[in-house]
Write a structure and sequence with these properties.
Blueprint: E1 8-14, E2 17-27, E3 30-41, H1 50-63, E4 68-73, H2 78-86, E5 90-92, E6 106-111
Parallel strand pairs: 3-4
Antiparallel strand pairs: 1-2, 2-3, 4-6, 5-6
Length: 113
C-alpha cells in the first residue's frame, strides 16, 4: 500500500515494541492532496511528543509531493482533534468526496506551502 511514490508509512519503536505510527498516501481524483493515514500512538506514549515528531516527519515528506494534506477522524476523539488543530489543520464542513472512510465525522486539511 505504501510502495508508490508519494506514499510512505513510519513507525516509532521503543524497546522492540511499535508505539506509534502514521502514513501519507494519495487521494484518488485529488492529485495535489495527500491523506494523513492511520496516525496512532499507544495510550502510554501520548503526551510524550512522539506524535508531534512523527507528524512533522510525515508532513515534511508530504511537502515534496503534494500541496495539501487531508485527514479524517472521529469527532469524539477530542484529544486527536485538538492535536490536529494545534498543528495547523483546519476543520472542514464536509469530507472530500473521493475518500472511503464512511465512519469518520470530522475532516481537516492543511496547506503544505
Amino acid at each position: 500500500m505504501y510502495k508508490n511514490e508519494g506514499s510512505q508509512y513510519w513507525v516509532v519503536e521503543e524497546n522492540n515494541k511499535i508505539v506509534a505510527g502514521c502514513g501519507i498516501g494519495p487521494i484518488k481524483e485529488w492529485p495535489h492532496i495527500c491523506e494523513l493515514q492511520k496516525m496512532y500512538a499507544l495510550k502510554e506514549n501520548r503526551g510524550t511528543g512522539i506524535a508531534s515528531v512523527l507528524l512533522q516527519v510525515a508532513l515534511d515528506f508530504a511537502k515534496k509531493h503534494y500541496e495539501n494534506c487531508y485527514l479524517e477522524t472521529l469527532s469524539n476523539m477530542i484529544a486527536a482533534n485538538q492535536f490536529y488543530k494545534k498543528n495547523g489543520f483546519v476543520q472542514l464542513e464536509k469530507p472530500l468526496n473521493a475518500t472511503e472512510h464512511f465512519a469518520c465525522d470530522a475532516w481537516y486539511i492543511k496547506s503544505l506551502k
